[in-house]
Amino acid sequence: MIEYSIISNRSLISFTFFLFCACPTLARTRHVINFRSSNLFPEGLTWDPLAQHFIVGSIHQRSIHTVSDAGIIETLISDPSLPENVTFVGLTVDTVNHRLLAAVHALEPLPPFDALAAYDLRTRQRLFLAPLTDGDSSDRQIANDVAVDFKGNAYVTNSAGNLIWKVNFEGEPSIFSRSSVFTSHPVDPDSPYSFCGLNGIAYITNGYLLVVQSNTGKMFKVDTDDSKARVVLLNKDLPLADGIAIRRDGVAVVVSQHKAWFLKSQDGWEEAVVYDETTLEVERFPTSVAIRDGERAYVIYGHALEGGAGNVEREWFSIEEVESSKDSGEESVWVFVLIGLGLAYFMFWRFQMGQLVKNMNKKTA
């Protein structure tokens, strides 16, 4: 019986050690990357899954940069042929064709300029610069965010004109959707950013786009085959929605200056539910969201409002992970279930060992 007691105690110690090792994973530290680059003021953010680093733009420097987990920033693209002081806004990586796509916009009071730039990620050379215009409007346009499908077609939102441009693989632009649905909801002209309509855009593998609208808080589903748009029915609006990205599990993460929302849909985004939200730091002006490795969402704190004003000096910026407490809670439940099953198995094994040792003692007696 002494030998059994020693074995049992050792096993208990091992299992207790397992519990203490497993439980800290429940409190995983939220990932924060601080990086330094004088007056960069990045607005756009994307993740390069092949190179395993983030990519950020710049408001005035005509440059695009990579940011590592250690906060090391390096210049990926420098394009002095673009008009001076233009902004790289939305960014996305075309993983199929190894390209970086960047929406380009000139902030007022610069002369109007809107385009989509495509760069080869291997050679870092520009492949094309597609001008984005609206022949039906004399108003100033705002090229904002960009998404790409598996054929290499890019879709760019026009926040001023409430339309979506399409730029094919060869760099030929056209107006893809000017649906009346985009202007079917009232906008308060006195509200902040009332001029900013369609903004963040993401491509869904089933063949449609999800687009958010800043000045109404609405979300739209747009078919990439026929360009038809419809409103996604939500349980709550997304005021001042800016960026959007889709996780591998189908969850959409939408960010504004104030919040990050987590949305799910069970019917192909005819309807969706905001099942969680988390507060963001308004003073650091978050704009874009990117999904890393299909699972983890990150926002860019680029102080873009300060950068747009052009009268502030700043050295430090950050990329920070945003999490849903409900998602992490579900993970915690499963970990505890596994631990409970392990404990039950251990107790059963301990009982069986006890019975075995008793039988052996009886035989030796």
Description:
By secondary structure, the protein is of the alpha+beta class. Helix content is 18%, strand content 38%. It is built from three helices and 25 strands. The strands form six sheets. It has a five-stranded mixed β-sheet, with no helix packed on it. A hairpin with a 5-residue loop joins strand 8 (114-120) and strand 9. Helix 1 (2-22) packs antiparallel against helix 3. The chain is globular.
What descriptive keywords fit this protein?
3 helices; alpha+beta; disordered N terminus; 4-stranded antiparallel beta sheet; 365 residues; globular
Give a nutshell description of this structure.
The chain has helices spanning 2-22, 304-309, 325-364, and strands at residues 32-36, 45-48, 53-56, 63-67, 73-78, 87-94, 99-105, 114-120, 126-131, 143-148, 154-158, 163-167, 173-177, 198-204, 208-213, 219-223, 229-231, 233-234, 243-246, 252-255, 259-264, 271-279, 286-292, 296-301, 316-322. It is of the alpha+beta class and 365 residues long.
